[in-house]
Amino acid sequence: MQLGLSEALPALVARRFTAARDAGHLIFSKTHLSIINAAGISYQLRYCPALAKKPSNLKPDNAPKLQKPDPFENPSPDLLIAQFPPENPAYNLILNKFPVIPNHFLLVTKDWQAQTDLLEKADLEATYECLKAWNTKDDSDASLFAFFNSGDDSGASQPHRHLQFLPVEDMRQPGSENWHPLIDLLATELASPSPSSPPKFKHLSGLPFAHFALPLPPNPSADTLHSIYITLYKAAAAATRAGSSGQDNESVSTQGPASISYNLAMTRSTMLICPRRQETALVPVDHVAARDVVDPGLLSLNGTILAATLMVKAQGEWDSLRENPEHLTQVLATVGYPRTDSRGPSL
Asked: Which run of H or of E encompasses 195?
């Protein structure tokens, strides 16, 4: 699968992002950034005050619920970056309309596909093509973080299938030069699996939830990407029922609706998955100071946790996590499943 773009992907995304932002077609919210260390891992903690404002036009509980329109069915030309493959487009590249990090964009299926269904070979191939296209001759060190939220407890916001991309260079700000996406911490020690032996998943000892990672070979085929994805998915599914059913991994369906909620992350070198049991978790905050905040202390987490990045909406939440990093460890343990897999060594 070829993207068939007329210019380098980073330049195209940056040009379209700047034009859309300056014309008001997307709403960019600035964040305050702090780096905190929890159990030996450095996390980006972003504070976005724009998220804390309570809506003033709340509808009564008995008001009829209207079906939300699909923003991906006919994407705005002002947010559309490209369509591909050129000969028969199956995917749109679209700017995130409400970004907090510059140049945040999405890979979206043109036709309706459910976000809760398992990814297909073409989805993974298209994702890898975007990751590969981000590295140009002018900036061979540029990197892109891809993530996918699937299921009610994953932090997914739209039911139409989409994967998301964040340029790592845009995630960094002054003071966070030594921060690295969590998935990259795994990648530095991943060894190529042997075809004759079971996969050995690596894990980070300081990460308090079940997670599974495998390396990607250079220029993997769609079949290879899908095989690695299914291997990881089966491990994640097994982690959600550890100690309960004992169901064999081989009986897990590998197509159609997923049986679990999970986050997937991907770079050119690594694929990582974590099963999710909750979308949200609470941190202790001063409720008097947070009286004008929606759901004070309630954090919603998505696949950016696999980049060691999370966002809060209130000063009290930001202060709580910065002053007590152990609260972050508790939050992560709450939204994920306990670690039970020990086939791979800790990093």
From this structure: none
